[in-house]
Each structure stands twice: as structure tokens, then as C-alpha cells.
Amino acid sequence: MNDAVISHEEPLVSQPMRPIESLQPPKFAMPSGACDAHMHVFGPLETYACVEHPHYTLPDGKLDHFQHLMPVLGLDRFVIVQPSFYGADNSCMLDALAAAGERARGVVMVEADVSSGDLERFHAAGVRAVRLDLFKLSTASLADTRSYITHMAAKIAPLGWHLQFYAPGWRVRDLIDFLGDLDTDFVIDHMGYMLEEDGLTDADFFRLLDLMKAGRCHIKLSAPYRLAKKRGYGAVEEVAKAFVRAAPEKAIWGSDWPHIPESGRDTGELLNLLQDWAPDAAVRKMILTENPRRLFGFS
């Protein structure tokens, strides 16, 4: 179940947040400057209005809670990704960036006609990427989707931002050839979301690995539960390892906190998966520190 589909059905009920003291501590030495490159922040509805038909109820994902979680897990930096809950109203994220200061960066969602002035204002606030929700555009033609991506890439080019794709795996597959020629850095969320039940094959996955190695594609090692579903995290271990082997300089890690709607998940357990996915400490430093520093412009 993805967090981007806006539905008129009853929303998923967001679960209570897991207590910080119950999190697994890191099983490996965390590198200095370690970054969670994919988390979300939420605030009270009376301050930040949600979209008309949200797919889930308001999660208990407050900035203060996450900042108290960071030292427990050895995290120094984080990237706030705009959730579908607020659509293109980035107010909650921008307020969180202002409160967090230089340790945080942001990824906005915007309308296609966003002005250069608004983009410059976002940049000054700490935003370094725009999120393209291709789940929401899943009924659009492939040609229209390509045009949209090209348009947004041109919009952000003057700022040196990158694109972030939140997309079903079958759409990622259909765009691989096009993305290979894209002259903009981009990140694909949640390890490409390539699900067998959506018709994705080993051949499709190998093409994505080739794109990562040869193009400007970066892969986010995030939300393994969205791929594994009820099979357990071991079901995606070989997928994650393959990305790390293919191009460790193009892999970043994100927790997907607060794990909508299952906020009781152990973020420490998710972080510790990196011990198996990337057993070499130098490679983990690339994934956790060096790659996000470059992509998001941390000092």
C-alpha cells in the first residue's frame, strides 16, 4: 500500500509512535555526519490542513520526536520529504526546516506551473529536490509522463536540485531508457518499488541496476517493508545488496519514518539492515554520509 494514492475510501488509521527507548541501537559504528535521507514531518490539523481525501489519518510524526530519536541512532542529519498528506502545500515541512536549521534539508512537492520565485524561496529555506509522485499520475500516458519529467527537470536546473521519483515499479521499468538520457541527477525511492505481483521481472531489475551504474540515477535504500510486505525484511536483502554492489556511490539510506501507517516499527531495526546490505564500513560511510552530503548540499 503506498502513501501517495488519494482515495475516497476510508483512510488507513495511523498507529501510535514506537517509544524511543525501545529502539534497537546501531549494531555498527555510525559514521560522522550520518543522514536519514527520507523521513516525513507532520503537525496539527488546525495549523496545517491536509488534502481533501488523505489516504491515512494524521500520523504522530512530530519534528521534536524525530530529533530526540537521532542521537539514539547516531544520526546527525536528515531530509524531510513532503508527504502526500499535504499535497503541494509545503508549509509544515518549511516550518520544520526553519526549526531544524543546517542539519536538515527538504524535498518539496509542487504544481507543474510553480514559479521560479517560489523555487528560489524554497532553496533559501533548505530545499534541494522536488518529489514527483508518479503513483498519482499512474493513469497518464508514458509520453505525457516523460514530458512532465522533462518540464520539471528544466524548472529545477538553475538551482542545481535533483528529482526524486516516487513511482510504481512498472512505471520505473517503462521509463528506464528515457531516464538513461536525463541530464539531471535523480533519486528513485524505495529501491525502485519493483514488485513481482505488479509484473516486474529479473530482467527489469537488471536494467535498473545498469541505469544506476551508467546514468545519473541514485537509489534510495528505504522502506523495505513496502517491497517485502508480509514476507519479512529478508525478502529484499538480495535486492538491496545488488544495488550496493552495483554503485555504492549512488546509494543513500532513508528510514521512511514515521512508517505510515505502522508507526510502531523499529527504526533502529531498519538502520541495522545496513550491516548486512553493506558490510564494509567504508561503503556504509558513502551511503550514510558522503552521498547525501553531495546530493543535498550539506556542508
Summary, kept brief:
With 299 residues, this protein is an alpha/beta fold. Helix content is 37%, strand content 13%. Helix 5 (169-180) runs parallel beside helix 6.
Structural description of this entry:
The chain has 299 residues and is α/β, with parallel strands linked by helices. The protein contains eleven helices and eight strands. The protein has helices spanning 63-73, 91-100, 116-125, 142-156, 169-180, 202-214, 224-228, 237-246, 267-272, 274-277, 281-296, and strands at 35-39, 77-81, 104-108, 127-133, 162-166, 186-188, 217-222, 251-254. The chain has an eight-stranded parallel β-sheet. Helix 5 (169-180) runs parallel beside helix 6 (202-214). It is globular. 41% of the residues are buried.
Essential attributes:
single chain; 299 residues; alpha/beta; 8-stranded parallel beta sheet; 11 helices; 8 strands; 13% strand; disordered N terminus
